[in-house]
Every structure is written in C-alpha cells, then in structure tokens.
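Class prep. Protein, please:
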Amino acid sequence: MRIRRTVLRLCLASTLLALPAVPEPSAASSRQETIFDATSYLLGDVTDAQRRNRIHELASMGVDTLRVLLVWRNLVPSPGASGRPAGFSAADPGDYPRNLWVGIDDLIREADARGLRVLLSVGSPIPDWASAGGKSSVKQPEPAEYRRLMTAIGRRYGGSFRPGGGGCVLSICPPGTEPPPPLPRVRYWSAWNEPNQDIFLQPQYRSGRPYAGRLYRRLFLAAQAGLDRSGHDRDPLLIAETAPSGGRRSTDPVDFLRGVFCLDSGFHRSRRCAPLNARGWAHHPYSPGVAPFHVSSNPGLVNMATLGRLERALARAARAGATRRRLPVYITEYGVQSVPDRRFGVSLRRQAEYLAISEHIAWRDRAVGSYGQYLMADDPPSYEFPFTTGLRLHSGRRKPAYRAFPLILAVQRRGRRVLVWGHLRPGVGSRRVEIRVRGGGRSGLLRTVTTSGRGYFSFRSAFRAGRRWRAVSSGQSGPWIRAYRYR
C-alpha cells in the first residue's frame, strides 16, 4: 500500500493543473450508493472488539457498503514459491490457511449483522507461483490461477461454507460440539485494484504499445468465470477500479478502457472480442492539491471534474458493441488530501468543503452510481508519502470532515444567489434539517427543509459576502462552511 500511494501521488503531482470547470450535467442521481473503503480500519492489527465497534460506527454514519481489498498474496500458502504448493487445491476454500482468513471472516459476519453490504475487491500483489514466470508479485498473472482463487472466495462466501474452529474441521466436529454457523453470502464484487498502474499489474506496455488493458480483460473474464462457478453468476461485478492517471509509466484510464474492450483509437471493436458484461466501471477520481471542480491540462487524467471523459468513452464502447449496455461509473475510492501533508494537503475545513462539493458533483451526474470515501484515519506520519484523506487524523482526533460525513452540506455560488445542497445519511425516509447561517448581516436559522426519502435536499438563497452555513439535524451538526463558485 505504501508503494501504491507513493507512485500514484507522484504521477498525479506532475499532471494536475487548475483550469476552467466543466459544465453541470442535466440530471441527478436519486439512489447513489455510499461506499467506504475501510480495509485498513477493519483489518490488520485490529481486535475483534475494535472491529465490531468500528463497523457500528460506520453504519451509524450512514455508510451503505464497505469496500474491502483482498490481497491475493496474503491469502495463500507459500506465496514466495515459484510453483503452486503440492496438494493445494486453489479452488477449494477449505484448502486455504484458516489463520489468514479469520479477520476477513469476522468482518463479513459483523457487516452482515449490521445490514452493510461488502464489496470484495480481489487483486495483487500476487503469489509468485501465480505469475507466468513464477518469480513476480505483479507481472503477467495467470488467468487460470485467478479463476481458481475467485472460485474459492465465491464458495467461501456463498452462504453455506463453515470455516471450522473449536476443534471442528468444516462441518465435522467432536462429539457434543456444535459446528460454527456458515459464513454470510457476499453479493458484490470487483476484479483487481488499479490495474492501469504498473505497481499492480505488469507489463503495462509491450513493444511500445499499451498492453495492460488486454491483459486485464483476461483477468476480468477469469474472475467472472470463477464467480459463476461458485454460484455468484447473478451478483454485480465491477470492472477496472482504475486510477485517475497513468503518469509516466502506466496507462491512462481511457487508453486502458480501449484495451479492455478491444477498441482501436477510433473506438472500433475487434470482431474477435465478445462484449463484456459488468455492473459498472469502477474509478478513483483523485485530484490531490487542487479543488475537485478544477480540471487538468493533462487530457488523459480523469478526476472528479472530468468524469465526462470516462463517461463518453463508455458510451462509445457501448455503441461499438463492446459492452452489453452502457456502463455507469462507480466511484469506489476517493478522498481529499489534507494537512499535515505539506505538499498536497488543504486545510481541515477546506477538506470538508471539498468533500461535500465532490459528492454534489457526483450526485448530480446520473451516470455515476456510487460515491466512495477512502480512509477513516490518516496514514502514519512515518510513511514517506502518507495518505491524509481520512476523516480522522492519524492520532484519532476527528477532523471537520468526520462531522460533515453524516450530514453533507455544499453551498454553490451562482452570481448573487447560492444553491444550498445536502445529504443526510443516517436513517431512511423524509427528515427535517435546519440550515443555519452566521455573518453577512444575519445569524441564526435560515430555513428548515425536509429531505427526500434518500436524505437529499436543496434550495436557493441569497448570497452574502462573509456568510457561513451549517446543517443541523437530530442533535448532530456539521461544520461551518463557505460558498464556492463551481459548475
């Protein structure tokens, strides 16, 4: 993860430049999913009690789905060996070392008990024995091995697998001992993480031409086949999970997309490639150091402000017959870098404001199916390039963004007027929200609004220089925020 963050941030740093904003889409999403990537928050050095408390915390903040990254190399026996261990049946979940799965199993159980969906994203680094040469953790993964892995994971989380424990082996237990309950079923999947980055998939180029997309296509089809074989053929499966830019050594998202769908530069499909079927194209539209509504001079970068570049490419792919239907975009990972990062970090207040604007941009775009937050707590300061996109500082202290997450508020300036938009996450059904102001010649309640059944609200009001806005509902309140000009 440290390598991933370092390379991604360096490639973005060389490409981001603020320019005029893109126009507002004509429609909005009324049922946008809220995804929270909490892998590091819920796995690793976490006790069972901490995990339960943290899942309860995320549920109470209005999260719909937990995105969990499963690293192939960390799940299997002898990952450094050049050949698959003798006798290891990679498609059988009972053949995997149980101790490597205990935390994941507990996470799946607790999320299910809280009514949260789990999105399992499975990818690299890979065991050496799963690479074509038997010597790499990222180079030329064998699709057949990936299919076996996904078959095993699909069977493990198919609703009937019992992992053992308490002296039991699968469903066979000592006399007088009850077998453990079966693990819950997972119904939401993604194949690989940022395969357009060379730290996750190699080679990115072959003979000077983009190659990673073609390689990933085989991996996606292998994942789909493995899930189909394990009874998950009707589950939603996301494709790609692309990083916003290829930088200098990797592949830009749209170029990668053309490789995945066998499209030439004119978006004409090769007849040798059948159309792919997926729930949506997953993407991570980061733009560290600049506002989410500013675009880059790099035409290959797809950040929050330029999602239209990816959406248009997906529309052209559908027209070419490369997909069964036009795929929506799923934002499965996103965040705004804050202080203490001195290079890209904005202030803590501005982080909360930018996150709200980002969600507003995503919500009003009907081609976007989800909004995702990356990190609950910042990376340790000891990292060379720590991600500080969390809602908490590494110390655990809550940022303004933590208070804002359950009660999002964005104020968009439009000349002498403002559009006040928000999203109240916890709970269902219509609810009441107070919008309060201070400054600009007024202090106190501005308006009480009633949300939609999904918690959204908006209204227009007068702009006043120096004014701040705040949302309050059912005892919780967000931070005071400012108005921004964006389109």
About this structure: The chain has two domains: 2-405, 406-487. The domain at 2-405 is CATH 3.20.20.80 (TIM Barrel). The radius of gyration is 23 Å.
